[in-house]
TrEMBL record, chains A, B:
InterPro entries linked to this entry: FA_synthesis, Phospholipid_synth_PlsX-like
Name of the molecule in the record: Phosphate acyltransferase
Enzyme Commission number(s) of this protein: 2.3.1.274
Family: Belongs to the PlsX family.
Record function comment: Catalyzes the reversible formation of acyl-phosphate (acyl-PO(4)) from acyl-[acyl-carrier-protein] (acyl-ACP). This enzyme utilizes acyl-ACP as fatty acyl donor, but not acyl-CoA.
Keyword Cytoplasm found: yes
Name of the encoding gene: plsX
Main location, first listed in the record: cytoplasm
Localization per record: Cytoplasm
Enzyme class: transferase
Subunit structure: Homodimer. Probably interacts with PlsY.
Domain of life according to the entry: Bacteria
Keywords, ordered alphabetically: Acyltransferase, Cytoplasm, Lipid biosynthesis, Lipid metabolism, Phospholipid biosynthesis, Phospholipid metabolism, Transferase
Annotated catalysed reactions: a fatty acyl-[ACP] + phosphate = an acyl phosphate + holo-[ACP]
Source species taxonomy: Bacteria, Pseudomonadati, Pseudomonadota, Betaproteobacteria, Nitrosomonadales
Length: 345, 345
């Protein structure tokens, strides 16, 4: 299935310098897909000239006269920047001109705009941010990563439904397992909301594994990890911080003296292979789930390779029919609830 | 100041095989301190014979006839095992015969027993679990790590007071900085409890830095990091999981073929130096704070070096007068609150 991806070409710390080379790379590797670059035409054309690429049927420009700043208030952006590259890219998804859109811009503004323009899928109360992380066994889908600081049990169940649909769409894995992030594996552990969520998950048609702990995430104990956005955001950022520190320590130790530098030189292929394996750029692209459209948020500081990975993820979600799978799971859950109500009455 | 440390010799996955060699090592390095080994005399004497060490004035045995299992319910332990090695060790602290105690046993049972026997310090509503983690700049004290799944703003403030006292006692750092773990650095971020806690921290005499994010922990942005026990436990265990995975990947890459194995051999001193720097055993020993006595929880799977580190931490807390510093901070906070009430009326 050929897909068309709308790209907020102006978003992120580096704007067109990153988004456009990433788009060109994507088109080379996916020779039947189409990309629409959304933003200030002058800036887009200047970057295309720099990288010696010209407009062709599969690489179009859609003009947008405004740019959303990284620190602007989402509410202000929503009210006053109706012709921003971010909003116009989302509009293309809304109108069916694109199957998905990708932005490295302001997360709050992207979420608010996407929610306002696209609306929520029926049966989903709140959008969630989901991302994949590397594990021993492959990768794990974790959500919510910061869209919702307070969640009830029903929200956590909906996150599980959405994460299951996302894993199915991306990995074509039937019946992926779902873990509920908690501070112990026993049922009695955790706060009231987590206990209630555990109960709902058990009643659902999902492949619920049970409670998992923080150290189970990277073991790849389950395919999906569900938690509230406060916990998920802290866990994700803490691991980013630890990975940076460990990388820094390793570099320092290899740079300590002549001997260690030589050892580092000889170990270069090994260290490169290690780095490739855990390269966070390969996992760039967080999905804003629960909307009537596919929206991917790239890290603001992403380079062209990282942004390229986010475009790939967007295309995979579209090709995998993610929205359809979410709706299917929601319907099944509602049918099961109605069945239960009938049985009880 | 000479200190006496009571050790639950039977606790942990390995019992006396770990606790006693650790105690002997500690006494060698601290020639004026005393250790009381608490547990089944036969088991303790057998281990002492194995490692060719005899009882001397600085190494005493205190008999206890029961052992707490790693999976026993804390309530059951509290009611039925009144002569457990864990409880007798805590009793020694209560009676003033020891300045602190260390156990690698069942965390829930240790917390419940310590709280029951020692009671809470006036002005502290709930005990917290605190631990040090390595950072770019040195180490950071993080709490709560799992004692309290739900916290209110006042609890978080009390954690901050206790963390400040702990850092002062251990590191002799005047006015350590306190960060409130959140999902953004701006004041508007986070849930209601975190926002209220931020307000209280601003009113306190503590050196409040403001909100910090997960990735700031390992940067060493602050000396103390405060969060509720659910978030802290997930963050801690997630980093443990990530560190294990990265270590595993690194080993795998160095073991891939003849060439990578040779590179690994040449890099051995570098990798050892790196490992030493982030060795989790050096950070073993979580403090149960808020009690009228010093209690350290060692990791259940600790080896003798890790358990030795926990004994050292216990002694440092005692020598640093940690309980006194906590009480001082609590008093200052209550004085400030009364002052405010007077001003308001």
């Amino acid at each position: 299935m050929d897909v068309t991806i709308a790209i907020d070409a102006m978003g992120g710390d580096h704007g067109t310098r990153v988004t456009i080379p990433a788009a060109v790379r994507y088109l080379k590797q996916h020779p039947t897909d189409t990309i629409v670059l959304v933003g200030l035409p002058d800036a887009i054309e200047a970057e295309l000239r720099t990288i010696k690429t010209s407009i062709e049927p599969r690489l179009r420009i859609q003009a947008a006269s405004e740019v959303v700043g990284m620190d602007e208030s989402p509410q202000l952006v929503l009210r006053s920047k109706k012709d921003s590259s971010m909003r116009v890219a989302i509009n293309l998804v809304k109108n069916g001109e694109a199957s998905a859109c990708v932005s490295a811009g302001n997360t709050g503004a992207l979420m608010a705009t996407a929610r306002y323009v696209l609306k929520m899928l029926p049966g989903i109360d709140r959008p969630a941010i989901a991302s994949f992380l590397p594990t021993y066994k492959g990768q794990v889908c974790m959500l919510d990563l910061g869209a919702n600081v307070d969640c009830n049990a029903e929200n956590l169940l909906q996150f599980a439904l959405m994460g299951t649909a996302l894993v199915y769409a991306i990995e074509h894995k039937n019946n992926p397992t779902v873990g509920l992030l908690n501070i112990g594996s026993e049922d009695i552990k955790g706060n009231e909301i987590v206990k209630q969520a555990s109960e709902l998950l058990r009643q659902s048609d999902l492949n619920f594994y049970g409670n998992i702990e923080g150290n189970d995430i990277f073991k790849g104990v389950t395919d999906v990890v569900v938690c509230d956005g406060f916990v998920g955001n802290v866990a994700l950022k803490t691991t980013e911080g630890l990975a940076q520190m460990l990388g820094g320590f390793l570099r320092e130790e290899f740079n300590r003296n002549m001997f260690t530098k030589l050892a580092g030189l000889l170990a270069t292929p090994v260290l490169k292979a290690f780095k490739r394996r855990v390269d966070p750029r390969r996992y760039n692209g967080a999905s804003l789930l629960g909307l009537k459209g596919i929206v991917l948020k790239s890290h603001g500081s992403a380079d062209a390779f990282a942004f390229f990975c986010a475009i790939e993820r967007a295309a995979e979600e579209a090709r995998g029919g993610m929205l359809h799978h979410i709706s299917e799971h929601i319907e099944k859950w509602h049918d099961a609830c109605q069945q239960k109500t009938r049985e009880a009455s």
